[in-house]
Amino acid sequence: MGDHPSKRAAGRIANELTDQIFEPPLRTELLRDEIFCQIIKQLTDNRNRLSEERGWELMWLVTGCFAPSTNLLKEVMHFLGSRRNQIAHDCVQRLQKTLRNGTRKYPPHQVEVEAIQHKTTQILHKVYFPDDSDEAFEVESSTRAKDFCLNIANKLGLKSHEGFSLFVKISDKVISVPEGDFFFDFVRHLIDWIRKARATRDGPTPQFTYQVFFMKKLWTNLIPGKDMNADLIFHYHQELPKLLRGYHKCSREEAVRLAALIYRVKFGEDKTGLVNLVKMLRELIPADLTKAQSPDDWKRGILSQYNADAGMTQDNAKIEFLKVIYLWPTFGSAFFEVKQTTDSSYPEILLIAINKNGVNLIHPQTKDILATHPFTKISNWSSGNTYFHMTIGNLLRGSKLLCETSLGYKMDDLLTSYISLMLTNMNKPPGGRR
Questions:
Q1: Domain FERM, which positions (predicted)?
Q2: Domains in the chain, start-ordered, CATH in brackets?
């Protein structure tokens, strides 16, 4: 609050002092009343305007983190209600939300601290979408990921938010936010975790920026054309890169059909780019099929199909694209290239596709599905920085799949999320991981 001289004001990050104030009471419930009492004491008859302003900033932050005990709540509410400034009114509302939604796990995020320091109690957060658009959404200290997802889905006019998730991209990782977590808690935890992992012994503490994405995560109950907004913003743009990387088993005829649709999505009825079609093949044809025939043969086939679709809108081309790949057993998959050594009948480098049908093991060259393990048959799984392990069938007599991969955390998270959703839909409380 500025009442005590500080030697290190310059260069200090916004939440360095608030961490010192809020970390102990978040760990020890008895200290929470003490924090409220100290702030109220310093806000009473404080004749220093700057000190008082900072005191209200602290009160605003604390009311979004935790509530006082039942014994003290009435006194805190009385104090806040007796003050005539706008922040006191905001604090009452924040405290009511905290009582409803529960206590945070981590101290305020830097974004929250900087917001109140700049005299704004509304925090707008930019969210990016797969179609390269973005939009700002209001996020509160008490906003959980599920509420955030619902808010975005409503604003975008999606028919359902089931299967959608927030993802935080930080450094070289993209991590899904668990729907029950407070949004700012998760981001705070993630940054702290990566900072500790990357910290140099004597160097400066690295600063990390992050981006928030909203994407389809679990591809269940999805029929192309049923939810146009979801198809146009998410499904098409998320499925296109997987096709072009050559992860699906795709015939030449299907590749030609899809390439004509991809071109139409990009350019509509504008035919001027067709002369450069051969140079664009990488953006139109799956990587594993480009050499299946000559560039001129590809061009002839794509031109013919494009002309046959004359009059189709760019939006309808996206839907038609989805309708073709929807019929494939690998539609809506998250793909992982892993190295396995447990089963000599499988190739050492294996493509794993996790989708609504379960965990699919795919031959990386032929794209044939070698095995599909439904979620009901998977009894155990674990992951680390370099591996993903899974047990199929009985824990004692079941078979194991041991994979080397740096994306084990993503496989683990997807498997957990699909199984949790499956159990929820069976009207059973989702069980914890074994």
A1: 123-426
A2: 16-117 (1.25.40.530), 124-216 (3.10.20.90), 228-326 (1.20.80.10), 334-425 (2.30.29.30)
Per-residue pLDDT reduced to its tens digit, 317-340: 999 999 999 999 999 999 999 999
Q: How far apart are CA 130 and CA 127, in angstroms?
A: 10
Q: What 3-state DSSP class applies to 128?
A: strand
Cα–Cα nearest to 215, from 146, 153, 154, 164: 164
Q: Identify the H or E element spanning 173.
A: strand 173-176
Q: With contact defined as beta carbons under 8 Å apart, do 322 and 231 qualify?
A: yes
Phi and psi at residue 41, to the nearest 5°: -60, -45
Report DSSP letters for 71-110, one per residue: HHHHHHHHHHHH--SHHHHHHHHHHHHHHHH---SSPPPH
Residue type, 289: L
Residues whose CB is less than 8 angstroms from the CB of residue 164 and which lie 6 or more positions away in sequence, other chains included: 149, 152, 153, 158, 214, 215, 216, 217, 234
CA distance 199 to 208: 11
Task: Reply yes or no on whether the pLDDT at 211 is more than 70.
Answer: yes
Which residues, in sequence order, are CB contacts of 356 under 8 Å at separation 6+? 218, 219, 220, 332, 418
pLDDT tens track for 234-256: 999 999 999 999 999 999 999 99
Q: Token digits for 301?
A: 């086939």
How many C-beta neighbours within 10 Å does residue 23 have?
Answer: 13
Partners of 127 in the β-ladder: 135, 212
Contact 66, 59 (CB under 8 A): no
| Three-state DSSP state, 380 | strand
Contact assessment for residue 146 and residue 180, using Cβ atoms and an 8 Å cutoff: yes
Token pair 């970390």: residue: 23
Q: Are 98 and 67 spatial neighbours (Cβ–Cβ below 8 Å)?
A: yes
CB 64 within 8 A of CB 33: no
> Which residues make Cβ contacts (< 8 Å) with residue 208, sequence separation at least 6?
170, 171, 191, 194, 195
Query: What SS3 class is residue 373?
Result: strand
Record the pTM: 0.87
- Residue 58 bridge partners (DSSP): none
